Amino acid sequence: MERLQREFLEYLRFNRNASPHTARAYASDLRQFVDFARQRLGREPAPADVDHRLIRTFLADLYAQGRARASSARTLAAIRSFCRYLRREGVLADNPAALVAAPRPERRMPAHLDIADMDVLLAAPDAATPLGRRDRAILELLYASGLRLSELVGLDLDDVNLGGRLVRVRGKGGRERIVPFHERAADVIRDYLPVRHRLCATAGSEAAGRPPGRRRDPLFVNYRGGRLSGRSVDRLVRRYVALSSTRLGISPHALRHSFATHLLERGADLRSIQELLGHARVSTTQRYTHVSAAQITSLYRKTHPRA
Fold first, then answer.
1. Which residue is catalytic, options 13, 40, 170, 172?
2. For 4-33, what is each residue's pLDDT tens digit?
3. What was the pLDDT predicted at 246?
């Protein structure tokens, strides 16, 4: 089984163009499933041992451990994908995971900031300092385009068209999309670019140690001139939220939720929001309709004379 798992993960990376994050998650989920099967069977499991009863028992065990439904659904997706691969390779006659229903997802409203709180957050960085200008550009672009954290830190200089106010984004599965942003974000990025140039020039990162071939100049850099990491962006967003808001749980992804929620409030249709966010399915985008439903309920309770 271990050899088959390694071959499956290589297939994901090289044939399906899965992101490193997805590959790591699937590897962890499959490892847990195989460990459970080993304990359940009392021996090393074989592909023929994998049936729908074993998979259901494994999911029941996850539920007993208090695993979130979304996490269990992702684990089942990994097992399904692995079984499809084994069937394609002729190891299994069918896909036993197809007989197992996915856990019903929990309906939780995404954490987001309202427009007034967002205005305060965007003004939090000190534009008089070099890193403050960089941080303001990061916050503005996250909110202006609804980018994922990994998409933001993966941006290169030539991905951003300031004149056309467009950014080229490489999303999940290597899918590429073009996302617009507004004039305010373009102005803030223009203010940041001289700072970026000085940071890179001071560190000598634009010339030294660059492999031959296409230049990849990161848009957002740290004080050493290297590409800013996702962990660093997460820390700086949470720091500015703590300085400017009383809301908890506001991460870079919450700015993406705020972007989608505010568009929906202003009349944008779900299909357009799906394209902007890069969702593969419109059902993923539909979670934002629950945010609007909550706002309608709140408005009703405030305004109806008998509410």
1. 172
2. 888 998 988 888 888 788 888 999 999 999
3. 60
- Kindly report the length of the chain: 307
Mean pLDDT on 23-46: 90
Catalytic residue among 134, 253, 257, 262: 253
Q: Is 175 a catalytic residue?
A: no
Which homologous superfamily is 2-99 in?
Tyrosine recombinase, N-terminal domain (1.10.150.130)
Quick check: is 288 catalytic? yes
Alpha carbon of 298 to those of 158, 230, 247, 303: distances in Å?
44, 35, 18, 9
Could you say which DSSP state residue 221 is in?
B
Enumerate residues 6+ apart whose C-beta is below 8 A from 50.
Answer: 37, 83, 92, 96
The catalytically annotated residue of 134, 196, 256, 257 is 256
Verify whether residue 172 is a known catalytic residue.
yes
CB 113 within 8 A of CB 121: yes
Per-residue CA distances from 37 to 32, 60, 74, 193, 301 (Å): 9, 13, 18, 54, 51
Phi, psi of 280 (to 5 degrees): -75, -30
* Cα distance between residue 23 and residue 96, in whole Å: 22
Asked if 279 is an active-site residue, the reply is yes
Euclidean distance between CA atoms 22 and 11, whole angstroms:
12
pLDDT at 286: 76
Domain 115-302, what fold?
hpI Integrase; Chain A (1.10.443)
Buried-exposed string 60-87: b where 16+ CB fall within 10 A, e elsewhere: eebeeeeeeeeebbbbbebbbbbbebbb
CA distances from 294 to 39, 109, 110, 118 (A): 45, 9, 11, 19
- Domain ranges (residues) in the chain: 2-99, 115-302
With tokens 């950014």, the residue in question is 167
* Distance between first and last Cα of the chain: 60
Distances (CA, A) of 194 to 91, 197, 220, 225: 57, 5, 12, 13
